[in-house]
Design brief:
Number of domains: 2
Helix content: 25-40%
Pfam families: CsrA
Mean pLDDT: 89
Order of helices and strands: EEEH
Number of helices: 1
Subcellular location: Cytoplasm
Low-confidence stretches: none
Shape: elongated
Protein name: Translational regulator CsrA
Subunit structure: Homodimer; the beta-strands of each monomer intercalate to form a hydrophobic core, while the alpha-helices form wings that extend away from the core.
Strand order of the largest sheet: 1-2-3
Largest sheet: 3 strands, antiparallel
Distance between the termini: 57 Å
InterPro entries: CsrA, CsrA_sf
Structural class: alpha+beta
Strand content: 25-35%
Length: 76
């Protein structure tokens, strides 16, 4: 893990086209701004993990449905 120290209004780059700027610090909360291309999804980690879990469940359900449909073809 890379650990950086930044002050308000300072920023850092991720790759060539993602800029993360420190907008403000209030107690134990930090307000950040992220400039990135529109085709890059940005989510809080808990939302990202929730999306990944939902996608995994959807794939499992779709796979189960395919197996059931495949088996129905041979039960005729």
């Amino acid at each position: 893990m890379l650990v950086l120290t930044r002050k308000t209004n300072q920023s850092f780059m991720i790759g060539d086209d993602i800029e993360v700027q420190i907008l403000g610090i209030d107690g134990d909360q930090i307000k950040i701004g992220i400039q990135a291309p529109k085709d890059i999804d940005i989510h809080r980690k808990e939302i990202y993990l929730s999306i990944q879990e939902e996608n995994s469940e959807a794939v499992q359900e779709a796979s189960l449905e395919k197996v059931i449909n495949f088996n129905k073809q041979f039960k005729r």
